Structure formats: structure tokens, C-alpha cells
Amino acid sequence: MHGTILSGHISLVSLIPGNILMLKFGIGIKDAKEVLGQLPRLLVGGVKSFVGKIPLGNTGGANIPPLQPMPVPQDIQELFR
């Protein structure tokens, strides 16, 4: 799931729906950490995306700090060329 969300942080239009999907996923698997981790991302993630503060490659999962950059896998990089 996180690999599919990776590209969602490039634009605000796909950031919010991506985090909503991750919130639903967290609810579906009854993962309180994921649910609680998505709530602040939904509240402030849009603002941070708008001003360019969301780091490239961050998958947006609750197991990753919101501002931690991550390497983008080669196969995903190929999609943007």
C-alpha cells in the first residue's frame, strides 16, 4: 500500500485522498497507530504540501515521521521520466 501512496505526495490533489485511503486501511485492519498517525497528516498535510514541506519519497504511513525524506525506488522513478 505504501508504495502506491509514494507518488501522492507530489501534489495536494493526490495527497489528501491518499491519506484518506490509509486512514480507511488503518480502520479496516484495526490499527490504532495508523489511524492516529493519519489524523494529523490529514489536518496539516495539505498545508505543508501547499508550501512544499512534504519531503520527496515519504510514503505517509504512521510508521514514518511526516517530514522524513525517503529514497524513491528506481521502478517508481521510471514512472516520472
Task: Report what the structure shows.
The protein has 81 residues and is mainly alpha-helical. It has one domain. Helix content is 57%, strand content 0%.
Helix content: 55-70%
- Element-by-element helix/strand order: HHHH
* Count of beta strands: 0
Structural Rg? 12 Å
What number of domains?
Answer: 1
The share of residues in extended strands comes to: under 5%
Tell me the distance between the termini.
Answer: 22 Å
- Helical region count? 4
In round numbers, the mean pLDDT is 78
**Poorly predicted ranges (pLDDT <50, ≥5 residues)?**
1-8
From the spread of the alpha carbons, the general shape counts as: globular
Largest sheet: none
- Sheet/helix structural class: mainly alpha
Write a concise keyword list for the protein shown above.
81 residues; mainly alpha; disordered N terminus
List the topology elements:
Blueprint: H1 2-5, H2 12-28, H3 32-50, H4 74-79
Helix pairs in contact: 2-3
What would a concise description of this structure say?
Helix content is 57%, strand content 0%.
